[in-house]
Amino acid sequence: MNKKGIWCLLLVSAFTSRLFGQVTFEATVSKNELGINERLRVEFTMNKDGDNFQPPPFDGFRIVAGPNQSVSNMFVNGKRSFSKSYTYFLTPLKKGTTNIGQASIEIDGNAYKTSPVKVVVKDAVELPKNPNDPNYIASQNVYLVAELSKSRVYINEPVTVVYKLYFGGNVRPSDVSPIDMPEYKDFWSQDIPSRRTIDREMYKGKLYNFVAWQQTVLYPQRAGKLPIAPLTLDVQLDVPTNRRDFFGNQIYTQVSRTITAAKRTLNVLPFPEGGKPNTFNGAVGTFELKVKTSKNALNASESLQVTLQVTGKGNLKLFSLPELVTPSALERYDPEYNEQVKTNLNGMRGNIQNTYTLVPQFQGKYPIPPVQFSYFDPSSKSYKTVTSKEVVIDVIEGPKSVGTIASISSTTTAVEAPTISNAFQFIAQRASFKSIVQTPFLGSTLFYVLLLLPVLLLIIYLALRKRAPDATLMAQRHKAKLVKKYLGKAKRNMSDATDFYLALEAALHNYVKARLHIQTADFSKEKMENLLTEKGVDAQTVALFIRVLTNCEFARYTPSSRSSMEQDYATAVEAITQMDKQF
Fold this sequence. Notes:
CATH topology of the largest domain: Immunoglobulin-like
Largest sheet: 7 strands, mixed
Number of helices: 8
CATH architecture of the largest domain: Sandwich
Helix content: 10-25%
């Protein structure tokens, strides 16, 4: 390249640099790798003032502070230097690699964007041991522990895991929200509602306050060493400082911490092979077996119900009932299944049953043979078999089979078909005929009644229509019924904030369960929000409903005024009313 070309290239580069290099807008982070328990500072800096600043969404992080805006104007050797920045402090919500997205701003009518910044979140790191650092104080006074009721169980034997949130040293949680909920693979699980009241007990040789944050009953479905996934919580804490206010009260500062319960492993034992009966189908616990009938004597073609019921304590929802065997002369319909099972921290308790409808065809006595049911008792580490009593059905009247059998000793003995000569003896074969006197319909009493009936019905309809309340009044009455049904207890407890918010939260949960026709204890805000959205409730009403639930959770740890309780009550009434209209 000749000299002329070089000079042209230099001139173009200088002009481009001057034209496009005057405005800078960039994003910087305090570190590109951090522990999940650390904070990240993100700063967006520009060298020229702009408008309409739009931060990125910060996916995978939660904003704990910001935006903090700062402006700097400096004159050095007669030259002006300008700098403006927006600063955010973030805490990571999960481990892994993520990007801080692009921020945007308008400067002199032009739009500028920052480049994405890659950040790697790793395991928790040890914080500096500074007794005056609020983050260090919080790390030494807040713990999340998963406690197992047993460490060794058999398949389908219940075990309870309780996640306890310990806090001490005048540290107070102001907000707690789950980040990673445990997924219990290889387990049947059911959450047990907790009142989350504050109790005290010894932990690590020190007396701590604690809250049973989550309680779950687990039934392992296979043998081996099964891991129990940890629970991760994002906790907002009020931490005391060395400063005091004008009245001498200690000043608190707020610290955000992400805490995870340690991973636990459960040793699950297989069922012993020795002595296992052929009728065993996975039932574990202690049970009783009953076979009951609605009647023991009836006529042919009438029906009766036979109920096979298993009662006791164990994995009632996780095994099938034995089948009821009946003689072929009793027509049997498919059973109707019913369960009355309650689950608490000790496991399932109650009964399950199959109800069969039987219809006998012929006279005779028909025995229903005993039913055997086997289960494994973990307390004695042995199999047990229970047997029901034989039930005899006495069919008194009906068609007779050839050589009517007084009793049938085996279920495999079939009742013979009736002969032609006596199959229909129970049907009357002689009839008495009477003459029918016909009267003319036209001009009869019935004719005039049917003629005037439409006119009378029209008059009654018009009279009722005038007296019917309008749609607004009906809507107000319906709203009053809903409020009285679900929110009456909360309104009566407004004198006590704790009872009020417990009742209000229970009312909201009961309303959604009743409306969606579901029965579950696994009822987190996220799941509730998804269910309501799937049922067609608009986003604004769902957000209103979730906000009331969030306020109920906050009220457990922060004092509430009468006005805030009244506001939350009014919001709950509005949310239920709007959802009811949309349902």
